[in-house]
Automatic annotation (TrEMBL):
Pfam families: PGM_PMM_I (PF02878), PGM_PMM_II (PF02879), PGM_PMM_III (PF02880), PGM_PMM_IV (PF00408). Signal peptide: none annotated. Residues 372-446 form the Alpha-D-phosphohexomutase C-terminal domain. It comes from Amycolatopsis pretoriensis. Keywords: Isomerase, Magnesium, Metal-binding, Phosphoprotein. Residues 8-134, 154-253, 261-367 form the Alpha-D-phosphohexomutase alpha/beta/alpha domain. GO terms for biological process: carbohydrate metabolic process. It comes from the Bacteria. The lineage of its organism: Bacteria, Bacillati, Actinomycetota, Actinomycetes, Pseudonocardiales. Its cofactor is Mg(2+). This is Phosphomannomutase. One of its GO terms (molecular function) is metal ion binding. Belongs to the phosphohexose mutase family.
Length: 451
């Protein structure tokens, strides 16, 4: 019996094509997914990114689905949030073929139930893995059919209807698509808006010839920063490979933290829905819940990860949620994450006033932060306990273990230390009043971890 634990992750399936993932295996995943959702839906919507392997794998998955008697609606090239739009608007389960920002040799499958409801380990993914490992049962009935449907224009219209840019002043915006799916969606979404788009790396190319399509790595936004300054743009936007995350730089080319974007968008959503609930994960700045509360909202803190965010949004009826990783979730987008909608909110806020983006976002950036710092360790548990013991003995320190170890120090500084689920790493995030205080706390924690 095959062991698929190496490629069936917490939220998706991901592996090296030809070694861990091939058409036969993907066909079985498609059949297993069909068995999971057959009682709920008559068809599955399938999209794929620009990787060379994606069309073939998507077709194999479709064969697996139709082999169990369900139909397939193929939307072809799509961003992940475009697939979520199709799942939500058509009320069908979906599968997206992408490995996001991973190198070209990888591919993967993100699956959802109708209405873009996530499928993770606890919501069907483990069951799918078990079915494939044990052997997918045959089906004697009539095979399903495959039809094609282009939803790009509908997706763009839906987003533009959620954010009104008609009153915006003209803006010049540099967009770095990283040779990913932003190059496919941005031209249609931004068509007709008062925005002069300066495109960078819009050519769809799954080999990522210019830089890795991961805008959270500072090395991957260097080109964007330089272009913003060169052309005198009002802002820059970078998307990851499947364009479900966006990262913003201001008119100086300086990065705007995802926490500041979370707070900014939260305030805009609260203006439409006063008193609403806003979800934030425990690594976002403490400025986020402060600002949400100041604007009459109800902040709710969660673990890191989209399945936790979406579940908490459903439980609380939240109107918006944000993560430190630049994932942004909207009730009005089936509680799914869409970087494009977050980008439109930022641009609308910028276009509504005359000042620069740096001035606008400064009100949402209250504290200094370290960003995520990874340390390779032999024993994650032992190192976590060493840190807990060192800080827990101090007066006035508060510790919680909702997700890893969060340590709140007297005076407002805090840090979170979390183990990676897939690598022998500990991930450290620190926030304090200023850069000097951040560095001092970073040095203190790393001295324990790396000793």
């Amino acid at each position: 019996m095959p062991d698929l634990s190496g490629i069936v992750k917490a939220y998706d399936i991901r592996g090296v094509v030809g070694e861990q993932l091939d058409a036969d295996l993907v066909r079985d995943f498609g059949a297993a997914f069909a068995l999971l959702i057959k009682p709920e839906a008559p068809a599955v919507v399938i999209g794929h990114d620009m990787r060379d392997s994606s069309p073939g794998l998507a077709a194999a998955f479709a064969e697996g689905v139709t082999s169990q008697g369900l139909d397939v609606v193929s939307i072809g090239l799509a961003s992940t949030d475009q697939l979520y739009f199709a799942s939500g608007s058509l009320n069908l389960p979906g599968a997206m073929f992408t490995a996001s920002h991973n190198p070209a040799k990888y591919n993967g499958i993100k699956m959802c139930r109708a209405g873009a409801s996530p499928v993770g380990q606890d919501t069907g993914l483990a069951e799918i893995r078990d079915t494939v490992e044990q052997g997918v049962p045959g089906f004697e009935g009539q095979r399903g059919t495959v039809s094609e449907r282009d939803v790009l224009a509908d997706y763009a219209a839906y987003l533009r209807n959620l954010v009104d840019l008609s009153g915006s002043r003209p803006l010049k915006i540099v967009v770095d698509a990283g040779n990913g799916m932003g190059g496919h969606t941005v031209p249609t979404v931004f068509d007709g808006l008062p925005i002069d788009v300066v495109p960078m790396y819009f050519e769809l190319d799954g080999s990522f010839p210019n830089h890795e399509a991961n805008p959270l790595d500072p090395a991957n936004i260097v080109d964007l920063q330089a272009k913003v300054r060169e052309v005198g743009a009002d802002a820059g936007v970078a998307f990851d490979g499947d364009a479900d995350r966006c990262f913003i730089v201001d008119e100086r080319g300086e990065p705007v933290s995802p926490s500041a974007i979370t707070a900014l968008v939260a305030v805009r959503e609260l203006a439409k829905d006063p008193g609403g609930t806003i979800i934030h994960n425990l690594i976002t700045s403490k400025g986020v819940p402060e600002i949400v509360s100041e604007h009459g909202g109800k902040p709710v803190r969660t673990r890191v990860g989209h399945s936790f965010i979406k579940a908490e949004m459903a439980r609380t009826g939240a109107i918006f949620g944000g993560e430190h990783s630049a994932h942004y979730y909207f009730r009005d987008f089936w509680r799914a994450d869409t970087g494009m909608l977050a980008a439109l909110h930022v641009l609308a806020a910028l276009g509504e006033q005359t000042g620069p983006l740096s001035e606008l976002t400064s009100a949402y950036s209250r504290y200094a932060a370290s960003g995520e710092i990874n340390s390779t360790v032999d024993d994650q548990v032992a190192k976590m306990m060493a840190v807990k013991d060192a800080f827990g003995a101090r007066s006035g320190v508060e510790i919680d273990e909702l997700d890893g170890l969060t340590v709140q120090l007297p005076g407002g500084a805090w840090f979170n230390l979390r183990p990676s689920n897939t690598e022998p790493l500990l991930r450290l995030n620190v926030e304090a009043a200023n850069a000097e205080a951040v560095q001092g706390l970073v040095d203190e924690v790393l001295a324990i971890i790396r000793n």
